[in-house]
Amino acid sequence: MKVDVLVIGGSAAGIVAALTAKSNYPEKNVLLVRKEEKALVPCGIPYIFGELGGSDKNIIPDSGLQSGGVDLKIGEVFDIKKDEKICELSSGEKIEYEKLIIATGSTPLIPKWLKGAELENVFTIPKDKVYLDKMFEKVKSLQNIVVVGAGFIGVEISDELKKVGKNVTIIEKQKNILSLAFDEDVSQIAQALLESRGVIIKTGCGIKEVVGVEKAEEVLLENGEIVKADVVILSIGYQPNSSLAKKAGIKINERGFIIVDEYMRTDDYDIFAIGDCAEKRDFFTRKLNSIMLASTATSEARVAGMNLYILSAVKTFGGTIAIFSTAFGGTGFGAAGLTEYMAKKEGYSIVVGSFEGTDKHPATLKNTHKQFVKLIVAKESGVILGGEVVGGESTGELINIIGLAIQNKMTIGAILTAQIGTHPLLTSAPTNYPLIKAAQVVSQKIRASLFRN
Fold it and tell me: Does residue 134 sit in the same domain as residue 167?
């Protein structure tokens, strides 16, 4: 079999890359190969265990690929012969390609040192419907759940399991939950909200061992404390699934990611890599980082899909801006770019400003939510480095706007003079818009420091 463009991997990155390739090069035939019968919505996985009541309501429909002119094959690629430009499937079938996009994603991290990780009822959170369906059935009949790791997935799955009446304890080695995305002030708001909903949170101490004979029974913490556990969910991170590329002789960096340039090309210019398996560099410092987000993956996918045959200087990827959002208890949390802590650690001279208003106006309207906005700004240039938001349903879109401002190196002055549309039911008041008011606080601090000097 011969195709023009072959995409390996059928999650968010692979789907977007395939559709973008077909859209930009309609004369080319595009084939996507994935090993799963059904692809899951990655960010919807935690909600399988609560609100969705199972994985069947969290499926990415294949109709989008079909309507976009992309062919689909279910199978597993186990070998890439890059010199011959051939991929071999586990079935023995061979596919010849002109251009190849590797979107093999990531796999859950299980520490080699963790004793008891092999016990029954110890789970991870892969993007695997078959695995998650079995996990769902097991968890349904058990009561005491310990979640190890308080990143976004750990926090979201904990809240969902609490919704269905489970006893949930989160174990987090760091001082605060969600510490890679938020500063301490915002993390503490999230923790207080989770605790008010009945989730037990233990921070500042990691897990030492899962204890049990055949099944998980308890978790032993580093401080000697023992927590009862019928189920242990390891949510302590992911590692790039780059073994296929490594086997093919494609260059891998020291963190295990496939090395790519700004067009997402590997060292073989006919092979691209995108998503969790592809190398990430920080937007600000260009240092290697390990951020794995569907939003980043799909951005990389569009870059790769557009640049397969013709390069364009305006279609490059400028680096990873960590843009996160989550919600529980009717409250949304969003973060983009550098936190205050990270900015200081990198050596930036910064000014921080925040403001709390409401997401509708007047605040007496039904379902109005407080909206807190925090901005981290480079002192000398006024360029926005990061932002954090706590609010209602509009939080996700507002943090995306802040992310766009960061990507375009907007300054506080640009935010202060931004033309915005407002409506009582949809936004804050134009006179009290929290994003602009937070920018105003930063501006006042910068002006005050100039007068003092």
Answer: yes
Q: pLDDT digits over 142-172, tens only?
A: 999 999 999 999 999 999 999 999 999 999 9
Query: Rounded distance, CA 392 to CA 325, Å?
Result: 11
Report which of 84, 361, 114 is spatially closest to residue 219, judged by C-alpha positions: 114
> Residue 244, Cβ neighbours under 10 Å: how many?
20
CA atoms within 13 A on the CB side of 13: 28
Express the helix, strand and coil content of the chain in percent, nearest 5 each.
30, 30, 40
DSSP string, 47-87: GGGTTS-SGGGSBPPTHHHHHTT-EEEE--EEEEETTTTEE
The tokens describing 383, both together, are: 């360029």
Among 175, 205, 236, give the residue marking a domain's end.
236
* 88-120 pLDDT per residue, tens: 999 999 999 999 999 999 999 999 999 999 999
Nearest of 267, 257, 272 to residue 305 by alpha carbon: 272
| One domain for residues 227 and 246 | no
Q: How many domains does the chain divide into?
A: 3
